[in-house]
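Crash report, auto-generated. Payload:
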Amino acid sequence: MNFTNLFDEARRHERAEISAKQIDGQDRSISFPAFVAEVDVLAQKLQTSGVARGMQIALQAPNCYEYLLWDLAALKLGAVIHAVPEDLPAEKVAAIARKHAIALWVYEKPENVAGIGNAVALAETAAAREFPVDRDAARLADADLHSRVYSSGSSGYLKGLEISRRGTELLVSDFIDAFGLCSADSHLIFLPLSNYQQRLSVYGCLWAGASIKVVRHTTVFQELGRYAPSFIIAPPAIYETVYNLYGRGADAKQKLAAFLGGNIRFMITGMAPIRKEVLKAFNALGYLLLEAYGVTETGMIAWNTKERHRIGAVGMPIHPEHVHFTAESEIVIKRPFPLSKCYFDSAESDSANTFLPDGSIATGDIGVLDADGFLSLSGRKKEIIVTSGGAKFHPEELERALSSVAPVKHSIVLMSKNDSRLVAVIVADGHEDPVVIGQIDESIRAMNASAPSYKNIHRRIVTATAPSIENGMLTRNLKYDRKGIYRYFEAEIEAREASLA
Amino acid sequence: MTTATADAELSKLTALVRQVNVDLPPGCPITASTRFVEDIGMGSINRLMLITLVEQEFGVSLEQHMHRLVELHTVGDTARFLATLKGAA
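Recovered output after restart:
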């Protein structure tokens, strides 16, 4: 895929369609050639209004048809979409406005752009009058700067990322090749378009002629059956929920086919670990559910594919020569054109720790390649537990072992602040059943017996309370918020109970 | 709406809540006053799935009512809201 020819390629796919709701709530379905024609009209209007190459267009919008128009029209002009997260509150939007010389703001909620003169409502996209562009706004000179986006990272803390045009082209091309994307495909996008992954999917589909439907995440489960996509990309929690309801029992295959629409060719998951049980179940039922791994800083790093997949691994590196490991097993990527060029609006220490002087990018993830070349992740570098004796290990090693015990749904291993001992928080079916408790304790004792003493779990909390964003135990990216989990169970973690070690 | 109808709606919704929350112990009571998050730890994605099942079971479209639904914290409040939607249809 290359952006220079993207519009010509999309025009060739006469039968491919984009479907989405307009911001006014009306459903829209349009062929790729007709869509490109609408992009041309918007680009022309932007140019007439004063938008020039390198100028920034700030876009704060939910998933809607107009989002796609603005993104592609900016691309056509060489303008830079500054993608503001949909739910960013007004005071933070104002901070962006003060800091960045934005030529034009495009908004859904007027209260978020109060006091900003050069702003236009999404609903006015097709209006006849010119846009109120700040014609004196700075032009960014970097020809490889495609977009500015924000990523909440693993901690939920918002960081700005400058997205590379060439990095995007290479990544999208890799995806099209690896998954054989073609005009027979159809893709349901429900995660926010302000998250760059979704825009990558749009570019890939436009190039390959795969139809696209864009919806809001709140309707994802209804739309799966309605739209019947051939592939989706979703966090593990979506697949877990579908599996819980439809993935079990003698008629699971029929129930899944009905719920997912019956056309699924492959499904991708990432962003957080997924239980092996769920992966195995989908694949056993004929659904290719594939784990993939990447970070916005570098782009995708590894993925399982139809031809080469292994449950429990995040796949084979897409370009093995780009993947390196530090002495601590941190994954470091060195590639000619990573997806991101640098951070903006973030702490200097973040940049220094991630974008290294030799041009490589430190992911913060700990991983290992097996003998066959599959990559497995064992956790985040910053989550490594350092014992009072100085030994280091990642809690996910223990958590994976605990999660293989039948009734265990989640396990999180933390260190007590009072006595520096390891405590396991275990979410399990039958958390009050003495038989279940006994089974868990027995498993912990067996693990302790075969592990060095610094990896011994001394206490456990067995609960029915699953981590969620609402109870503060998951980040917005659906990853364990270990500090939140500690806070939630602090009294139990610090309780002096008999040791299991 | 009669009390019997309201009870029937609540009963249907309770069954769906139990269906979505597979981790709930069988004896765990779900009543009109049960709170989705605080009492049964229901996450946001499970709530989306519940809405999908409600649409199927109650024969209503909830897409335009998402803002109202997320403000409803208990099973009973949600059952009453669904009953008003059905009544208005």
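Post-recovery validation: The first helix of chain A runs from residue 3 to 12.
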